[in-house]
Design a protein that fits this description.
alpha+beta; Thrombin, subunit H; 12 strands; about 25% strand
Amino acid sequence: MRVIWWLATVVAVGLVGIVLSEQRALDPLHDLSLTTTAPVEDGIRDIASPLNDIYEGVRDRGGLVRENRRLQEELEALKQQLAEQQDAQQRIRELEDALQVKQSRPEDQLLVANVIAQEPSGLKRAIAIDRGQDDGIDEGMVVLSRNGTLVGTVSLAYRDFAWVRLITDPESAVNAEVELQGPQPQPPASPQAVAPATTAPATPTPSVTEPGSVPQEPGSQPARGVAEGDLRDGLVLDLLPTEAGIAQGNLVLTSGLGGNYPPALLIGSVKDVDERPQSPFKTATLEPAADLSSLDTVLILVSFRPARLSGR
């Protein structure tokens, strides 16, 4: 019964409120309530405004983080594409250089190989290549740079890869000769060879040259020595004759003596000459023609069989 009365009271109050609202009898009361609550509402809005800014900032920061991550991924992908393009262009240039060497040496059979590792200990100078016995590689074969200059020899050959001993390795020794430029100094004549002043000048003997031969200029013979690897100086040319007028910049080639290297392969150039008094030989420090520290592609001279392999 009490519930019925409560519901009836609520309905009656609602009907009275509707009637009064339709008659606009409650407008003064409504205006009074708005006037009373407006300052409170403004204060609450002022307090909540920084909180709302913080919320909006956090929401926007999440979007910025996602956008930044997306841009970084796109940048990384573009860098990867650029690196692949540069690597492909570098590979094309290396193969073009190797092709030029092959064209300049049509009588030789050259095999292109990629460098896959370097000797890490620092006690040796060696590189690993991706060619091995399955490709016809044998120990002792001569290895050239992609420009055709001497790099070293195959020291160990396995089925699918091989190690190359560089010419700067301490165990490397190459018979070499220096291309001398201009006439070389002659040793002074001995006193017995000086003719007395009263002696009539000797009649010069005409030189006889065989048909088809080229007369040799005095001192035009190259100076021969041995190019050896050195951990400190890199490459040293030893056992040079003391009378040879070797100068900085002279080219050094393989002499072909010993049969382990073909003749006329460029090794490098003279960087410095060391002349020691009372020494039977002079030495020279060489600058290798090939950049041995950044080899990517090499050529194996498979058509030349070194003398060290002749017994196999």
